[in-house]
UniProtKB/TrEMBL annotation:
The keyword DNA-binding does not apply. PANTHER family: CARBOXYPEPTIDASE X1-RELATED (PTHR11532:SF43), PROTEASE M14 CARBOXYPEPTIDASE (PTHR11532). It holds the Pfam family Peptidase_M14. SMART domains: FA58C, Zn_pept. This is Carboxypeptidase X (M14 family), member 1b. It is found in: Secreted. It comes from Astatotilapia calliptera. GO terms for molecular function: metallocarboxypeptidase activity; zinc ion binding. Keywords: Carboxypeptidase, Disulfide bond, Glycoprotein, Hydrolase, Metal-binding, Metalloprotease, Protease, Secreted, Signal, Zinc.
Length: 722
């Protein structure tokens, strides 16, 4: 059958599948179903008792996938206690590590290795999965061992089923036991669909041949199993039936269509705009949500979510599409929390920063994309390492400058070599940087996948160490931001969950300094903090980078509260407007300094500013070029709204004079009097100094006299007198 929603070609195999499929596909071609098969060549291959339909596609590829969803070895829906094995070499290679796409640690031999590996090398070894209920099994995906140092893959295997683990029935192909093709490399997932689906509770994967390099080759594999549960005894997650959200994977065209439908449903609070194009010409669309879309309002903070920086980490994309639908629906329903958020915040949602990469992963599908297909841009650039490295600029300046007062700690300029056309910078990265510079964002987060943790800056270690805790001046507030998301996420906050891959983030309460996890030079988080006013964290949403569509409703429930609560943090701290005391006009680029925090922020075009801070009392100073600085004490409370701290700066006399003279105006009487007093004071001091000098030294004062003349008029030197 063809599912028109996700354009996946789904086949249920029968004994005469190949004959039926030929006629069926021919029929489809005549009907031209969505033009899906244009430019494709179909061939049928018979390999080792397995009948398979292979599609050699051009630009409109379809996938042969199971009609049943994965049980959840990769997503951890299948618990460790549901996995058993005939034997295993050691704990780090136990059956609990036999999960599709699981990643090993850097060192072989630790407890986080990259596959299940049998202790013995014979055909009696097996990996067993307990579905915990009767399940109609339809297929298996196999993958080799993930390791930097080892090469272990299974070439062929058998499958058996059981209801009690005592009696096992082999998967048959006619009168013979079916043998399925496995892997030729360690990372490419290989799908095998059963000729006939089988109902059972347990399934075993039984390797028959494997890569043998003398005594070094071992039986190792990672797997996923497809099956439909015959009965569901409980529902672990509740989805509000009032919310009609579109829970499926959306390719570029479908994403654009969904965003347009949201804008049409809520035209008064939404706006769609593009910040640029990908290398392949796909637009980077943003959904703006605000009570006054298209305009920055004085005092209203700007917030952003960015997803899809790595194209194969797709959950963030779908969550942002769900989020824009949810906000629209709840705003229309009158939900006070959502109404307040929309009226007090200007929200920007970029669901796909790397649409080219996503399209590559989407064509393969959720289980067959592997770990890295679509991660990079079309040019092969990892965008999370592609922003200007301002950390090195800052640390180099600290090392070279002896006068600490001359050092800057914010708004670091981008190095010139980074901005040239020849620089190896993705067009998508350039577009996002321009977006950051044009909109005064206060808070943001970028959504990733493949782990369950929230990381905060800095992401780069100071001495290029592989990992080292590298805090910012705002460490305490960044930790708060990370805790806000992690503690409200239903999976991260579950202390009984197991680690995803090779690091147990539960020990850190599911938050970690980015550099303390691994060194990431050129990250978006660090760039945002050092080049703009915006604070940003990274959220790793799921162990599975590309969860099956059936998991999306659950993932929405896991993350909905986290997404909303994190957005609300943009209103924590202080905010205000820096104005000219005389004119009342807002002062742009005023520097806001907080005592004991060596990181400043700046006011924007209208003079408004936002400084994210934890509750407490702070001494805050506002400075601007040509103005006297002004300081005041600001108290940040525990409420969900900011403390107002406005500043009115007095312009310095010289600056005021310049401004008046440039406008051709007359000086105010108070300023005239002040300038006259200042001149007389200078005149008395200078006259006394000159009169004390011997006559012979008069000529040595020529330069001083010239300066004096400029200030007070011409003078003459006669015997040391003026």
């Amino acid at each position: 059958k063809v599912n028109n929603n996700d354009e996946h070609f789904q086949i249920h195999h029968t004994s005469d599948f190949c004959m039926e499929a030929s006629a069926f596909l021919s029929n489809l071609l005549k009907k031209n179903v969505k033009n899906a098969f244009e430019g494709s060549t179909l061939s049928f291959l018979f390999t080792r008792n397995v009948c398979a339909c292979v599609h050699e596609m051009t630009d409109k590829a379809l996938l042969v996938v199971s009609e049943c969803p994965p049980l959840g070895l990769e997503s951890l829906k299948v618990k460790d206690t549901q996995l058993r094995a005939s034997s295993y070499k050691r704990r780090g290679l136990g059956p609990h590590r036999g999960r599709l796409n699981i990643q090993s640690g850097i060192e072989d031999g630790d407890i986080y290795d990259g596959a299940w590996c049998a202790q013995y090398r014979d055909k009696k070894q097996w990996l067993e999965v307990d579905a915990r209920r009767l399940t109609r099994f339809t297929g298996v995906i196999l993958q080799g061992r993930n390791s930097i140092w080892s090469w272990d893959i299974v070439h062929t295997y058998k499958v058996q089923f059981s209801n009690d683990t005592l009696v096992w029935k082999p998967c048959m192909n006619g009168t013979e036991e079916a043998i399925f093709e496995g892997n030729q490399d360690a990372e490419t997932p290989v799908l095998a669909l059963f000729n006939t689906s089988t109902v059972a509770r347990y399934i075993r994967i039984n390797p028959q041949s494997w890569y043998q390099n003398g005594t070094k080759g071992h039986i190792c594999l990672r797997a996923e199993v497809f099956g439909c549960a015959l009965s569901v005894t409980h529902v672990s997650h509740f989805t509000d039936p009032n919310n009609k959200l579109d829970f499926r994977h959306h390719n570029y065209k479908e994403m654009r269509k969904l965003m347009k439908s949201v804008q049409e449903e809520c035209p008064d609070i939404t706006r769609i705009y593009s910040i640029g194009k990908s290398y392949m010409g796909l637009k980077l669309y943003v959904m703006e949500i605000s009570d006054n879309p298209g305009k920055h309002e004085l005092g209203e903070p700007e917030f952003r979510y960015v997803a899809g920086m790595h194209g194969n980490e797709v959950l963030g994309r779908e969550l942002l599409l769900n989020l824009m639908q949810y906000i629209c629906q709840e705003y229309k329903r009158g939900d006070q929390r959502i109404v307040h958020l929309v009226k007090e915040t200007r929200i920007h949602l970029l669901p796909s920063m790397n649409p080219d990469g996503y399209e590559m992963a989407f064509k393969k599908g959720s289980e067959l994309a592997g770990w890295s297909l679509g991660r990079y841009s079309y040019e092969g650039i990892d965008m999370n390492h592609n922003f200007a490295d301002l950390n090195s600029v800052m640390w180099t300046a600290i090392e070279l400058e002896t006068d600490r007062s001359k050092l800057i700690n914010h708004y670091f300029p981008i190095p010139e070599q980074y901005t040239t056309e020849e620089a190896f910078v993705a067009s998508e990265t350039r577009a996002v940087i321009s977006w950051m510079q044009n909109i005064p964002f206060v808070l943001g987060a970028n959504l990733h996948g493949g782990e369950l943790v929230v990381t905060y800056p800095y992401d780069m270690t100071r001495d290029w160490a592989p990992r080292e805790h590298t805090p910012t001046a705002d460490e305490s507030f960044f930790r708060w931001l990370a805790v806000v998301y992690a503690s409200t996420n239903q999976v991260m906050s579950n202390h009984d969950r197991r680690p995803c891959h090779n690091k147990d983030f539960l020990r850190y309460n599911n938050i970690i300094n980015g550099a303390d996890w691994h060194n990431v030079p050129g990250s978006m988080n660090d760039f945002s903090y050092l080049h703009t006013n915006c604070f940003e964290v990274t959220v790793e949403l799921s162990c599975d980078k590309f969860p099956h569509a059936s998991e999306l409703p659950i993932e929405w429930e896991n993350n909905r509260e986290s997404l909303l609560t994190y957005m609300e943090q943009v209103h924590r701290g202080i905010k205000g407007v820096v104005r000219d005391k005389d004119t009342g006009a807002g002062i742009a680029d005023a520097v806001i300094k907080v005592d004991d925090i060596n990181h400043h922020i700046r006011s924007v075009a209208d003079g408004d500013y936002w400084r994210l801070l934890n509750p407490g009392e702070y001494r805050v100073t506002a400075t601007a070029e040509g103005y006297f600085p002004s300081s005041r004490t600001c108290q940040v409370m525990y409420d969900h709204y900011p403390t107002i701290c406005d500043f009115r700066l007095t312009k310095m006399p010289k600056e005021r004079l310049k401004e008046l003279l440039m406008k051709g105006g007359k000086l105010p009487k108070d300023l005239q009097l002040r300038l006259r007093q200042l001149r007389m004071r200078k005149l008395r001091v200078t006259t006394k100094a000159i009169n004390r000098r011997p006559a012979g030294l008069c000529c040595c004062w020529k330069e001083a006299m010239m300066l004096f003349a400029v200030e007070f008029g011409p003078v003459s030197c006669r015997a040391g007198k003026v």
